[in-house]
User: Which sequence fits this backbone?
């Protein structure tokens, strides 16, 4: 069972390898897209690396719910609807969506997911020791 520090360190390594960033750039507050420059294609690599590092299975769309962000049921005029926000909160309990909810522009979604969110996600998938 990994500790929270060990989880962060493994996520940091995965992001350094997947995105070609320096270790000092991968802080808990860093956003994957805005700060670390992740693109949609990188998310597949990140998921693969996390699955391998933690011996977990991450179903498609669980960590990065692109299906919600591209659905006309949840997006209108480039913004996530109230129902879409409810669905995002249900699917992403590990992420703080409060700031995004104030102006839920789909294009800005990638700028809200942080390294700390990823740590909370992995912590929810594995047993953590304190």
Assistant:
């Amino acid at each position: 069972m990994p500790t929270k520090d060990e989880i962060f360190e493994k996520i940091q390594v995965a992001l350094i390898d997947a995105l070609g960033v320096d270790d000092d750039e991968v802080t808990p507050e860093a956003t994957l897209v805005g700060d670390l420059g992740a693109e949609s294609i990188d998310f597949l690599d990140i998921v693969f690396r996390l699955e391998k590092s933690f011996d977990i299975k991450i179903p498609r769309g669980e960590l990065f719910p692109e299906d919600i962000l591209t659905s006309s049921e949840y997006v209108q005029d480039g913004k996530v609807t109230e129902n879409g926000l409810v669905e995002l909160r249900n699917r992403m309990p590990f992420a703080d969506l409060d700031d995004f909810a104030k102006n839920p522009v789909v294009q800005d979604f990638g700028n809200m997911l942080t390294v700390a969110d990823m740590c909370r996600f992995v912590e929810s998938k594995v047993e953590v020791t304190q």
